[in-house]
Specification:
Two copies of one chain form a homodimer.
Chain A (H helix, E strand, L loop, with lengths): L3 H12 L8 E2 L30 E10 L6 E4 L5 H28 L2 H9 L3 E4 L2 E6 L15 E5 L2 E6 L2 H14 L1 E3 L4 E11 L5 E7 L7 H13 L4 E5 L15 H6 L9 H13 L3 E5 L17 E6 L2 E8 L4 H17 L4 E3 L7 H6 L1 H9 L5 H12 L8 E5 H5 L9 E4 L2 E2 L2 H7 L4 E4 L36 E8 L9 H5 L4 H9 L3 H6 L1 H17 L18
Parallel strand pairs in A: 1-18, 2-4, 3-5, 5-7, 10-11, 10-20, 11-12, 15-16, 16-17, 17-19, 19-20
Antiparallel strand pairs in A: 2-9, 6-7, 6-9, 8-9, 13-14
Helix pairs in contact in A: 2-4, 5-7
GO cellular component, one term (chains A, B): membrane
Keywords (chains A, B): Carbohydrate metabolism, Chitin degradation, Glycoprotein, Glycosidase, Hydrolase, Polysaccharide degradation, Signal
GO molecular function (chains A, B): beta-N-acetylhexosaminidase activity
Chain lengths: 558, 558
């Protein structure tokens, strides 16, 4: 299997000193790779199976037919705008599924076949209603401790029950996924089903990077549609980086005027409000990241004074990370972050803190003087100094999330700071962080920029991060979840959706369902078949997810 | 750099016994990998550079401005429908480039800046005309020996000269690519340029596979647009295979009625006529492949009798390759191929002949009896027997192309049969075939289903197949070209275009330009920058090619 591509890869690795963000793996983990599927193989899609898999489900042989002119959602408990929007949205989803039937029935529908359905003893008639029993008033915005539990009972008059609007939203998605086309695409059916469901992890995120390539607002909204279908609940928006500054600030308009790729490639206040509201309606938080002090070159287009001058042989050769010795740096950060905090209602704020180019700091005589005056012997201490000054700038309004380097470099972290692990695949970083009583978001296994041949989702269907830690003294609940990361170097509007989906569906299921490893080990085909159905379902709802496995067909794609 | 994904890959290879179509590589070829670029790095796009690179080009500092209201194409020699269509098409291309200027000029256009252009001594005014001097009458259809040479001279009144309509088409594409946006997207400029250009190889193909996943007609037409932009001239249409039979036959309508994925997922006679004409207008041949005797399970939906029954422990367990012992097999092939020959005007017909599941043949007692009666000791002989009977069924109308197994298994091949090499990356198969005086199409290096991280086009920018053969006794001109192969296991309408482009642009340039390896070795950045411009150019012309390298921006994408 040695081929030219491997050889090229070796050569390229040799000449490649700049490869960003590739996690290392703990060799002992080989035994934890748990889905056995054959790449490029055809897997028959399931019918009406839910992705991610519900925690408890009983499905009966009896079934009902969907007729959009008969079926209705009814609010039996509390209600609110979020619920009303969801009812409108899912009414359209069900109507669209039914349209496939209408298109197919034009040519071939026969009364005889209708009768065949009607006389089948398992057929229980037309589905009439889903009663929605929301027992508590809606919360205004999703949050880390949001309640997503729900129970669903499908019969002629069906019911969905939850204490929380977020649980209702999850249940409505599950309900929509239970429908399937049958009898040669001539009927939309749903089986009698009882489900009790809840997520394993409260934080199930997707990172998007709008700095390496700009992503259109339409594409971000489409991403939120797909996240809802996969029960992911955090859009981690890595909005700016070295390459461009598309965030349009009202206080500092020059940041995007000078730093965006183009005046058309910015996110205005109106854009962000729209995205945040669209996400909230789907029970999804939008977590802003403004990465400091590294990954900030685009800030320097407007404000070069806040960046460090990098030296070579006594001469300035360019600009590097933020300059931690300048008060103006912190002032700009504070003012900008206040504006961002007003725009993003989430209780968390991601400050970045990864991959600081410390060589540049070390090359600069003023920085070295500053370090000497403050008795610092390493630039890691300077990084810690910088982050320790920046963290309190968030004030009471937001709690911080930072990449793991901030923890390891020794910044003074508030106890409620969450650390995002990305550098090692395996337990060791999580153990180090948990033992200091910080919460953890794990993302190392889910770097979607890692490509392999074929439908490579199984590379990301790896392990439940809480299960790989073998320690009774650690509080595993402090691993609050994980995140699929789609770094933007080689994705833009042309390929973003198809590259993310269904690959991100793998961590979405791991983080929601946390299936027993024994089950996973022996059910590769079942998982592949469910994902096959799920991809077609996404396609039918307008999300251009790429093929999951091998050869396949999806009727009714939008 | 060892990571989880490698580990998963190793595991998957272990459990994967069905992986199709992965070529092996000759280890000695390591030294021939010749483009040095850094994955994920940002490469600044060139301005008005042509892809694939012309053979001879002189570009001057002086330049002209494009004004669509002034500029016109004029026919000074022969003309025909193909030329008139091309003029219409490129008139729109130039108008669309200019629209980007109009959009940008609305906000910021200043008379001062106009004057700045007008007073620049290198500025020579507005481009008025491209005179098209076609010296011979148009041919009706492109062919293996088509003349694609042209010369182009850009000045106020520019001229494009060729003996052949096909050369004129190539030159018009080059002309369109010489334009670039300048002065902050406020002007479309073109430099004074002289080009003499011709292809290194007469056959520069792209294989599409419409059986593993159906591709819409719209997507195939878009692919032809992209091929024209990359000066590729053969669409190798692997139209049917095991998984589905989308070709709609008039003589045998049941083949697609039973064998297509869905009644909507077929190619009708009208669809094929449209595709063939669209391709011809762009100087692109459409080469049909009906792969026999393997890769034919979908034929069996309508005609199970032509397939071999495979046995296990004395019982029939399924259907395998075509049954070479049945006369009905050959009769169906002959009748179907006659119809296909009438529909596709190309002088070649691809008969496949790869990867025959000989285990099935060996399991069948009737096949074994037949072999014994004909004194055959191996199923390779049976394969040769089958192909030797099928090859003459093409009659005088088409010459055959076959995959390399047909050659190695010893079929009696007519001297004008072309052999397509796919199994080994390197010279050995080409040498074996050339020494038997057959022509060769080389495709092993260009399997686009081989994915790597980053903008991985450089994996396909490998070597000129004629240059790696170190033999004076062989006729290197018999290597007629090469082909990028996009097998369909994991591509469909959602990701096809973005996955093929710009990755197929790499072999397109190798096969047209055949740049000196010394040049290639030392100009990785230049190649990457030209491809960066080319991707944006494709985007602006409505082809959603994915990012070529690392972070980038494309203004004016459609």
């Amino acid at each position: 299997m040695l081929n030219l591509f491997c050889i090229v890869t070796v050569l390229v690795l040799f000449i490649n000193t700049l490869k960003p963000l590739v996690p290392n793996v703990d060799k002992k983990l080989e035994s934890l790779v748990i889905v056995k599927v054959i790449p490029d193989q055809q897997y028959p899609p399931t019918k009406g199976e839910v992705w991610p898999k519900p925690q408890q489900q009983i499905k009966e042989q009896t079934y009902f037919k969907l007729s959009p002119s008969v079926f209705k959602f009814t609010e039996k408990g509390e209600t609110c705008e979020i619920l009303k929007n969801a009812i409108e949205r899912y009414t359209i989803v069900l109507r669209d599924i039914h349209r496939i039937v209408c298109r197919h029935s034009k040519k071939k529908w026969k009364h005889a076949e209708t009768r065949k359905l009607d006389t089948n003893p398992d057929y229980k008639g037309t589905l009439e209603e889903l009663q929605i029993n929301l027992s508590r008033p809606c919360e205004a915005y999703p949050h880390m401790d949001m309640d997503e539990n729900y129970s669903l009972n499908v019969s002629a008059v069906s019911s969905l029950t939850s204490d929380s609007i977020w649980g209702i939203l999850r249940g409505m998605e599950t309900f929509a996924q239970l429908f399937y086309l049958s009898n040669g695409y001539k009927d939309v059916l749903i089986n009698s089903t009882q489900i009790v469901d809840f997520p394993r992890y409260p934080y199930r995120g997707l990172l998007i990077d709008t700095s390496r390539h700009y992503l259109s607002v339409a594409n971000i909204l489409k991403t939120l549609d797909a996240m809802e279908m996969n029960k992911m609940n955090v859009l981690h928006w890595h909005i700016v980086d070295d390459q461009s500054f598309p965030y349009q600030s009202e206080k500092f308009p020059q940041l995007s005027e000078q730093g965006a790729y183009d005046p058309s490639m910015v996110y205005t206040k109106a854009n962000i409000n729209k995205i945040v509201k669209y996400a909230r309606d789907r029970g999804i938080r939008v977590l802003p990241e403004f990465d400091v002090p590294g990954h900030t070159k685009s800030w320097g287009a407007a404000y070069p004074g806040i960046l460090t001058q990098c030296y070579e042989s006594g001469k300035v050769v360019g600009l590097g990370p933020m300059d931690p010795t300048q008060n103006t740096t912190y002032k700009l950060i504070r003012e900008l972050f206040r504006e961002v905090q007003d725009l993003f209602p989430d209780k968390y704020f991601h400050l970045g803190g990864d991959e600081v180019a410390m060589d540049c700091w070390r090359s600069n005589p003023d920085i070295l003087n500053f370090m000497a005056r403050h008795n610092m012997t390493s630039t890691s201490e300077l990084h810690a100094y910088f982050m320790t000054k920046v963290l309190p700038l968030l004030g009471q309004k937001s709690k911080p999330i930072v990449w793991q380097e901030v923890f390891y470099d020794g910044a003074v972290l508030p106890s409620d700071a969450i650390i995002q692990v990305w550098k090692t695949i395996g337990p060791q970083d999580m153990i180090a962080i948990l033992s200091k009583r910080h919460k953890v978001i794990y993302s190392s296994s889910w770097y979607l920029d890692q490509l392999s041949n074929g439908g490579d989702w199984y590379n990301f269907y790896v392990f439940d991060p809480r299960r790989i830690i073998d320690s009774k003294s650690l509080k595993l609940e402090d691993i609050v979840g994980g995140e699929a990361c789609m770094w933007g170097e080689v994705v833009d509007d042309t390929n973003f959706i198809a590259r993310v989906w269904p690959r991100a569906s793998a961590p979405a299921e791991v983080l929601w369902s946390a299936l027993n490893p024994q089950y996973t080990l022996s059910n590769g085909s079942e998982i592949a078949s469910r994902l096959e159905e799920h991809v077609c379902r996404m396609n039918r709802r307008g999300i251009h997810a790429q093929p999951a496995n091998g050869p396949s067909v999806c009727i009714g794609r939008i």
